[in-house]
Amino acid sequence: MTAKQHPEIIIQARRGGTVESVHHAVAALAGPDGEIVERWGDPGMVTFWRSSAKPFQAQAWLTDGTVTQFGWGAEQLAIMSSSHDGLDFQAGLVRSMLADLGLSEADLRCDAKLKAQHNCSGNHTGFLAACVNHGWDVPTYQQPGHPAQEAALQMFAACVGLDARQIPTGVDGCGIVCYATPITVAAATFALLPELLPEIGAAMRAHPTLVEGPGWIDTLVMQTIPGATSKCGAEGLSCVSLPDGRGLAVKVVDGADRASDPATVTALAAVLGADAIAAPLRAKGRPPITNDAGDVVGELLGVAPA
Prior knowledge:
Shape: globular
Order of helices and strands: EEEEEHHHHHHEEHHHHHEEEHHEE
Strand content: 15-25%
CATH topology: Beta-lactamase
Radius of gyration: 19 Å
CATH architecture: 3-Layer(aba) Sandwich
Number of helices: 13
Distance between the termini: 19 Å
Number of domains: 1
Helix content: 25-40%
Largest sheet: 9 strands, mixed
Number of strands: 12
């Protein structure tokens, strides 16, 4: 079946009713079998998954017995898959996990200051857990070629259906190895997420505030669209496993953070229908632009051409 093709999604920055700037986003929608059924712009664009890969990295530690070894459950799976907001209950969970490993915040290499409050600390703790479980070197856990990084890459490759040697890699903002694929691969993989990551997907849906935080896009998607599993990444990438088995991936072409939420909500409305978007999520799709005094002087607005 030929995928239905649309122009790019447009995100307008409006000030005083005038369009001041425009961002563009590409998107792909996959059916439950992983086949692409609808596209906006060129979703063949290759981009790094960044944090959207975290649930698939966490799957490595579930599959190899690390999670069981430390008696961890759904909350720990959710925080390992997260880009959390650094709130006390999120950082506290990370600290308790590090204590289970006999480690401390000093062992985290995600940054020099925030440590457990860093948004990637749960993900890093998963890598540290694998190191402790397997006897791998702890201080170098971030480095390319480290056994933990190789294990995570192999799991990611198996999930996306590619040879690990064919996947371009780089270094994420937090120092972990990151992976690049076409947007179409991200959409197809998230369509298959319930089959690939049944336990992790369930954990994320059960604990959406651990995955990001109150008022953030991933949390709101999972709170307001029952059965959806959402995980965004840096540089304007957002991936959603929809409750009907389809997978959606949206990428802001210029990587602008401010355009990511409007692009995601616009794409969700195009796929699910505007009536399926609850008010809190709808508000994320039309955020205000404020001036230095905090006054609302404009808005961002997404448009998905038919």
